[in-house]
């Protein structure tokens, strides 16, 4: 704090010296240059102090102090220029002041006002800034008109020329404007600059008019000068303002600047007060003198024009703010599409035939987690653009939140088809080419049921999302029944699980061509409800996690039991189906490891069957599979060839076996085209060193053909149906006897 200390003392010294010089000057004469020394030195001190404040602060504050330093620099130049004027220009009753000097003063004042106006106001729009500038202009003109009357009298009395008279009006106007800006900022609730600094800066605005008064008052002593008398105080007040800033910094910076929400509205009194004052003044002058001067008429006109402009701009600003508020309620910020609120209202109030389409991006969560939120945002934006392009002009396109979109169509019935077709094309987002699968819920409605359309489309969407792949579900009355039936099944399922109503069957997997039993696949049963009927419900409700743990434990217990009874190599492995939902459970590898340990089953005697679709998205599911594989458990890809069928998956996912789907087995013995896939799959499996199991073998001919094509393992009703554990026991015992015989 040493620097502001000596600067302050220096500035005080300059101001005191000036006072001494002026007082002494009324008694004795001395060189005209002398009074300018403290003036110029005081101003230089202020420039230094402002620059010091700029160096120590940051951000908006630094910009402010740098700007006032420049403004003060201009005043300093003006002081020097005026010193030169006093020596070089001719005198005419008053110390001369040149155009250059006046320009420099005006420039300094304007810069200072600008610096104050540019103080952070919470992201002011150009309209708000313009309104503030016009406020200042209004005040300046009002000040000019109000003082012209008085100054006119004052100047006439001292015999000052007409041009100097005009300049003085301008000076006073600008000075008043400057003071008003300072006061305006001071009356704001909070300010980035310390209040004390503002208190010191405010009176500087009065330097102009004060020097004019002093200049005329000091006329009897030609070596004295009004400007020179005032300038050291300008310097001193500047130094004190900077000092207050330093003290604030030393005290810990103070509270942060929060733009007061009402700051913009406070200014609206300015045009009212200004027009009121000027009207009053003009009325008084006219009543007293019977006429108005050019200045008064011109000034009043200018004032009215300024006020009109100011009010028009402020009104436009208000309207645009109102628009923004209304738009924000209606619009989604990220994509620019309509908001959910707008969409539901639009659907409910639509008339005539319409279609509501709700869309959910399936793998959005995985993409967002895997590639980061920036990529997620880019994907949503890209998808929003695609939707807008597809939907056409007559549709309402909305983002309903998260990864859900909505379309309200009143024409173009083929939009849904085009939407599906477009799903096959990748979207580019943040440098990634992404294939997004979507679930779509659709409902058609007419005027009468518009109020219900959104809810129906939502039901259809939930149903579409429940399925594994991306799909479209159209609402109809059966859907509603289906859904309520599903709710009943879910409740029943929960009860059945608690009551131990489930059991497992085991379907043999046999060797080709001899039909020897090499493994089994466990298949869950619940009374007469087929797994296809309750597994999806269990997945939807999350119950599959609990049910799946029970299945794993039961199958491991059974496998360990067979091992004990029939020897360690009686069965190569027992397969257990694990659904996509289970793979998303991070605890799955632990659950499997615990089941193996509990029953003492070696990991390689357990096979986990997963579908391609479940691991296609990568992420959590793929991580689970990798962890399972690391335990030593076999991984088999179920229903191979029907899902995503990405051969790349065979490289990224640690697969030991593929189960060729029944549909390809069904095609055997037909045309070469029908056999092509079954043939290709053995080839691929062989080159990749994978075991192949042909599923759903129902005839001897199929078994024979599979053997010819190179398949060595098969499963199907031709060999055996899913059987209770005892039946497998019998088969294993018979097999042992055959080997022994
Ligand atoms: P999947 O994994 O493809 O199971 C094979 C299905 O095909 C079984 O039906 C089986 O009985 C049937 N199948 C076997 N051989 C033949 C044949 O020669 N002809 C015909 N037409 N069908 C045959 P199931 O038991 O009804 O199971 C259906 C699906 O339910 C399974 O398909 C599987 O995705 C699921 N699932 C069954 N049990 C479980 C389980 O314990 N956990 C999980 N997560 N899913 C299971
Ligand atoms: Ca299976
Ligand atoms: Ca299968």
Give an account of the 3D structure:
This protein has 741 residues and is α/β, with parallel strands linked by helices. It has 3 domains: 4-124 and 147-258, Up-down Bundle (Rhopdopsin 7-helix transmembrane proteins), CATH 1.20.1070; 340-475, Reverse transcriptase/Diguanylate cyclase domain (Alpha-Beta Plaits); 489-728, Alpha-Beta Barrel (TIM Barrel), CATH 3.20.20. 62% of the residues lie in helices and 11% in strands. The protein is built from 29 helices and 15 strands. The strands form 3 sheets. An 8-stranded mixed beta barrel has the order 8-9-10-11-12-13-14-15, surrounded by 4 helices. A 5-stranded mixed sheet has the order 2-3-1-6-7, sandwiched between helices. The protein has a two-stranded antiparallel ribbon with strand order 4-5. Helix 20 runs parallel beside helix 22 (588-599). It starts with a helix and ends with a helix. The structure holds ligand C2E and calcium ion (CA) (2 copies). One calcium ion binds at residues 638-639, 659, 695. Residues 507, 522-524, 530-532, 535, 548, 551, 577-579, 609, 638-639, 696-698, 715-717, 722 line the site of ligand C2E. The chain crosses the membrane at residues 7-24, 30-50, 70-91, 97-117, 129-153, 165-186, 198-218, 269-287, 293-313. GO terms for molecular function: cyclic-guanylate-specific phosphodiesterase activity. Residues 486-736 form the EAL domain.
């Amino acid at each position: 704090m040493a620097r502001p200390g000596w600067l302050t003392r220096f500035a005080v010294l300059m101001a005191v010296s000036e006072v001494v010089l002026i007082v002494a000057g009324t008694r004795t004469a001395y060189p005209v240059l002398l009074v300018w020394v403290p003036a110029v030195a005081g101003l230089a001190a202020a420039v230094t102090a402002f620059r010091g404040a700029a160096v120590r602060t940051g951000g908006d504050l630094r910009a402010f102090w740098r700007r006032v330093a420049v403004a003060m620099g201009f005043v300093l130049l003006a002081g020097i220029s005026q010193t030169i004027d006093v020596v070089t220009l001719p005198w005419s009753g008053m110390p001369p002041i040149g155009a250059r000097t006046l320009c420099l003063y005006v420039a300094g004042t304007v810069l200072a006002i600008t610096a104050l106006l540019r103080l952070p106001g919470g992201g002011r729009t150009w309209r708000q800034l313009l309104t503030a500038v016009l406020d200042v202009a209004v005040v300046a003109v009002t000040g000019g008109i109000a003082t012209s009357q008085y100054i006119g009298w004052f100047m006439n009395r001292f015999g000052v020329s007409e041009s100097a008279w005009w300049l003085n009006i301008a000076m006073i106007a600008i000075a008043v404007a400057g003071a008003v800006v300072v006061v305006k900022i001071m009356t704001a609730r909070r300010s980035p600059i310390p209040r004390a600094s503002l208190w010191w800066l405010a009176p500087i605005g009065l330097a102009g008019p004060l020097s004019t008064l002093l200049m005329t008052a000091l006329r009897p002593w030609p070596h004295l000068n009004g400007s020179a008398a005032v300038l050291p105080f300008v310097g001193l007040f500047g130094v004190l303002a900077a000092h207050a800033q330093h003290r604030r910094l030393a005290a810990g910076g103070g509270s942060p600047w929060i733009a007061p929400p009402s700051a913009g509205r406070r200014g609206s009194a300015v045009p009212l007060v200004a027009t009121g004052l000027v009207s009053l003044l003009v009325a008084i002058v006219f009543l007293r003198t019977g006429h108005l001067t050019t200045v008064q008429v011109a000034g009043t006109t200018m004032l009215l024009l300024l006020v009109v402009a100011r009010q028009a701009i402020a009104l436009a600003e208000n309207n645009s703010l109102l628009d923004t508020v209304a738009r924000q309620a209606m619009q989604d910020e990220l994509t620019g599409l309509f908001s959910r609120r707008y969409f539901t209202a639009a659907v409910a109030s639509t008339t005539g035939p319409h279609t509501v389409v709700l869309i959910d991006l399936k793998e959005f969560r995985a993409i967002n987690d895997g590639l980061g939120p920036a990529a997620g945002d880019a994907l949503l934006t890209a998808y929003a653009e695609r939707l807008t392009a597809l939907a056409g002009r007559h549709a309402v396109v909305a983002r309903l939140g998260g990864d859900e979109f909505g379309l309200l169509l009143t024409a173009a019935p083929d939009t849904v088809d085009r939407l599906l077709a477009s799903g096959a094309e990748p979207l580019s987002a943040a440098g990634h080419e992404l294939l997004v699968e979507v679930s779509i819920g659709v409902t058609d409605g007419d005027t009468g049921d518009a109020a219900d359309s959104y809810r129906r489309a939502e039901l259809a969407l939930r149903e579409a999302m429940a399925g594994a792949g991306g799909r479209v579900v159209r609402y109809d009355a059966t859907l509603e029944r289906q859904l309520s039936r599903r709710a009943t099944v879910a409740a029943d399922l929960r009860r059945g699980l608690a009551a131990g109503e489930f059991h497992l069957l085991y379907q043999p997997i046999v060797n080709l061509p001899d039909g020897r039993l090499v493994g089994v696949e466990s298949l869950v049963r619940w009374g007469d409800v087929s797994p296809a009927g309750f597994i999806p419900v269990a997945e939807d409700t999350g119950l599959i996690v609990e049910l799946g743990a029970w299945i794993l434990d039961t199958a491991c217990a059974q496998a360990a039991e067979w091992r004990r009874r029939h020897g360690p190599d009686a069965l190569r492995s027992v397969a257990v189906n694990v659904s996509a939902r289970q793979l998303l459970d991070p605890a799955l590898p632990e659950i499997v490891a615990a089941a193996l340990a509990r029953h003492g089953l070696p990991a390689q005697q357990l096979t986990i069957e997963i579908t391609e679709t479940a691991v296609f998205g990568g992420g959590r599911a793929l991580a689970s599979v990798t962890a399972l594989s690391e335990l030593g458990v076999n991984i088999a890809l179920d229903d191979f060839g029907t899902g995503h069928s990405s051969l790349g998956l065979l490289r990224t996912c640690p697969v030991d076996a593929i189960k060729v789907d029944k549909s390809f087995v069904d095609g055997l013995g037909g045309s070469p085209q029908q056999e092509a896939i079954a043939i290709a799959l053995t080839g691929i499996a062989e080159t990749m060193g994978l075991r192949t199991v042909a599923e759903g073998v129902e005839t001897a001919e199929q078994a024979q053909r599979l053997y010819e094509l190179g398949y060595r393992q098969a499963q199907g009703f031709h060999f055996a149906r899913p059987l209770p554990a005892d039946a497998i026991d019998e088969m294993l015992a018979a097999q042992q006897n055959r080997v022994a015989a």
